[in-house]
Amino acid sequence: MHNRLIAPKFTLQATSAKPQLNSPNYGFGFSVRGKPGNQIIGHNGAHLGMSSQLNIYKDKGYILAVLANSRGATAPVVYTLNNLMERVE
Questions:
Q1: Cys-Cys with 62: which of 9, 30, 57, 66 at CB 3.0–4.6 Å?
Q2: Interior CA angle at 36 toward 88 and 19, to 5°?
Q3: 13 Rama class: left (phi>0) / alpha (psi -120 to 50) / beta
Q4: How far is CA 89 from the centre of its chain?
Q5: Which uninterrupted H or E stretch holds 46?
Q6: What is the C-alpha to C-alpha distance for residues 39 and 57, in angstroms, rounded to an integer?
Q7: What is the pLDDT of residues 54-82, one digit of tens each?
């Protein structure tokens, strides 16, 4: 997010939704969601016996990484943290 690994142009491309490509909530590898002032960029994954979620709270300056040894176990944690992050200014 601080353009240390890739140029600002490419960071913006990767973390911006692509409605022109019929992808209103997804960039190049990252989901893009949230409300104005609380944009969340991230990615998740799951397989047999594991789940994960990465959320970058772009406007707030926080990052959440949740790793679990159970499929679907990250959802309640992420839901709770997303609700709490809406209160952070």
A1: 57
A2: 140
A3: alpha
A4: 18
A5: strand 38-47
A6: 6
A7: 999 999 999 999 999 998 899 999 999 99
